[in-house]
Amino acid sequence: MDNSKRVYVYFNLHKRMWSMRQSGKVIGHYHDLYLKDAKYLVSEAGRKRVLKEKKKNVHAGVSGFMVEDVPPMDQIYFPVTYNPYKNKTFVACKGIFDENETSVKKSDYAYLDCNDGRANVRAIWRK
User: Fold this and answer.
1) Under 8 Å between Cβ of 43 and 59
2) pTM for the predicted model, two decimal places
3) I want to staple 64 with a disulfide (CB 3.0 to 4.6 A). Which of 38, 71, 89, 109 is the partner?
4) How far is CA 76 from CA 30, 38, 110, 115, in A?
């Protein structure tokens, strides 16, 4: 892995793990990981294909620089989610800010895990 380049991470439904790509190539699979300078990406064309075919495909994920951990800092964090049938973007889980789901495009850090067999994403910001 080239640490000077961004990685793209998506939840692999077949392996039930996070798959990581860099420069278009899968370079690893993880149960949990941290990303710095996280961007939450959704391909609108891929989303439309899911809606049309009613079949999942890789079209959404988180991009960033892989890091070992979040440095000690005052932070706020909350879970984010993505459902192509409900949202066009990643959103803060309902009830975090209000009863509406707020779009999330980026965060200082992201923590991704799948230890319970589900894709869990936590957006982390410096306070």
Assistant:
1) yes
2) 0.90
3) 38
4) 24, 15, 11, 22
